[in-house]
Amino acid sequence: MKKYLVELIGTFFLVTTFALTNGSFLAPVAVGSVFAALIYMGFTISGAHYNPATTIAMFILKKISLKDSAIYILIQLIASFAGAFCYFLIWGRNMGIPRPNMEINIIKPLFVETIFTFILVLMYLFVTEKKNAENNYYGLAIGLTLIGIGIASANISGGSFNPALALGTMSVDKLFGSCTCTPFSYGWIYLTGPFIGGIVAALTFKFLKKEEL
């Protein structure tokens, strides 16, 4: 139960931080910094996924069971919904969801969410593998990666890289928000892109490290 609780707490604070800072030019710094701290907090207990894309990658590499994968993803979705609802209780308006740049072709935000989720998950897999288990830099490396890709994607996709984050915030917006926009009309970007990125990251890691797996 401890690992499930850690996934709940970590995902909740990651999503809450994203929602409360979304739209600020310092949002990637805030989210990446909190993410690094949450990685250090929970890695030895749950693996500190906080993201279905990471969980899927770990399942593909047989580092987590099917049962735990399903429970992790369910908990991540619940925590994301709770984090988004926390934002709504504070501000009561619709600014906490990732939004693509509607002035460009919609495929471009999809592409950005895919490739940056790929490098985020691949970074996670490399710096947290067993032979690096005693290192002290894994959380910092992952957090800095999230800051960098968050800044790079801010004006294109909004920088989600996390299906649970997107689905939770969009669900709260749909149920409780007052915006006339329809976030689910572009929500597929934040579900499809990160899942593809996570899967490709797992396959890439497996190919590069096949002698050691």
Describe the fold and architecture.
This protein is an all-alpha fold and 213 residues long. The chain contains eight helices and no strands. It has helices at residues 2-21, 27-46, 52-60, 66-91, 107-127, 138-153, 163-176, 187-208. The two termini are 28 Å apart.
Radius of gyration: 16 Å
Looking at CATH, the homologous superfamily is: Glycerol uptake facilitator protein
Question: How many strands in all?
Answer: 0
How many structural domains can be distinguished in the coordinates?
1
How many alpha or pi helices? 8
Which CATH architecture?
Up-down Bundle
Order of helices and strands: HHHHHHHH
Instruction: Profile the largest sheet.
Output: none
**Overall 3D shape:** globular
Q: Poorly predicted ranges (pLDDT <50, ≥5 residues)?
A: none
Query: Any idea of the CATH class?
Result: Mainly Alpha
Describe the secondary-structure layout.
Elements (H helix, E strand, L loop, with lengths): L1 H20 L5 H20 L5 H9 L5 H26 L15 H21 L10 H16 L9 H14 L10 H22 L5
Care to give the gist of this entry?
With 213 residues, this protein is an all-alpha fold. The chain has helices spanning 2-21, 27-46, 52-60, 66-91, 107-127, 138-153, 163-176, 187-208.
What are its keywords?
mainly alpha; 8 helices; Glycerol uptake facilitator protein; 213 residues; globular
